[in-house]
Amino acid sequence: MDKTSATVDSTLKSNDVEVKTQTQNSEKLQDNVSNSNQSIQVLSIDVGCIATGYSHLDRAPCSVAIVNDRCEILFDSLIKPDKPVVSDLFPFSGVHKVDLQHAPSFDEVIQKVNSFFTPTTLIVGQSIMSDINWMKLEEGAHYNALIDLGDEFTTFDPKYSNNK
Fold first, then answer.
1. Strands 162-163 and 73-78, how do they pair?
2. Which domain holds residue 78?
3. Domain count of the chain?
4. Distances (CA, A) of 48 to 32, 72, 128
5. pLDDT, tens digit, for every residue of 41-95?
6. What is the spatial distance between Cα 132 and Cα 143, in angstroms, rounded to a whole number?
7. Which strands form 30-34's sheet, in the order they lie side by side?
8. CA–CA separation, 83 vs 93, rounded Å?
C-alpha cells in the first residue's frame, strides 16, 4: 500500500467532499470529488496495549477509542486480554490490570469497532498502522485512505542529517 496524504475541504456542501490525494510514487496530485450520497467520514482511532510477556513485541490491546472529525468520542472501550498480563504499562496505557477483569473480550470489541468504519472512511492519526493492524481494519472494507500525522509533521534534524 502506498502511503497517502489527503486533504479534506470541509467548505463543500454536506455530501460533496473533495479529497486530494498524493502518493509517494506520484508527482501528480489527483482530485477526487464525491457528489454521491456516499459521503466520506473522517475518524481517528487509538489503541492502548498491555504487556503479555517480557519482549517489546509481547503486547495485546487493552483499550480502543474512536473519535470523529468534530472530536466527539464515538466509542471508548477496555479490552480483556486473552493472555495473562505481565504489566499493564499504566504510564503508557492509562489502564490498570484490575480494570480489565470485567472488560469485554477482543472479539466483542472488534465487532463494535468494525461497525464504525465503511469503505469510504478516511482515518487520521499518529502512527496509525499499528492501531489499524490491532483492530484488523482492512483497506477497501473499513477505510479508503489514511493520513498519518507522524508523516505529515516530520522535521529535519541537522545533527543527524535525517528526518524525524
1. unpaired
2. 4-163
3. 1
4. 33, 19, 12
5. 999 999 999 999 999 899 999 999 999 999 999 999 999 999 999 999 998 888 9
6. 10
7. 4-9, 17-23, 30-34
8. 17
Helix (H) or strand (E) holding 152: helix 149-152
Reduce the DSSP state of residue 149 to 3 states and report it.
helix
141 neighbors 116 (Cβ within 8 angstroms): no
Longest dimension (CA), the chain: 52
Upper half-sphere CA count for residue 133 (Cβ side, 13 Å): 7
Is pTM, for the whole model, over 0.70? yes
Asked if 68 and 41 count as a contact pair (C-beta separation under 8 A), the reply is yes
Q: DSSP letters of 90-128?
A: HHHH---GGGGTTSPBHHHHHHHHHTT--TT-EEEESSH
| Burial (0-12, 13-18, 19+ Cβ within 10 Å), 95 | buried
Amino acid at 129: M
pLDDT tens, position by position, 91-112: 888 899 999 999 999 999 999 9
- With a pLDDT cut of 70, the percent of the chain lying above it is 75
Residue carrying C-alpha cell 475518524 = 43
User: What CATH code is carried by the domain that includes residue 73?
Assistant: 3.30.420.10
Length of the chain: 164
Cα distances (Å, whole numbers) of residue 128 to 67, 80, 99, 156, 161: 13, 21, 25, 21, 26
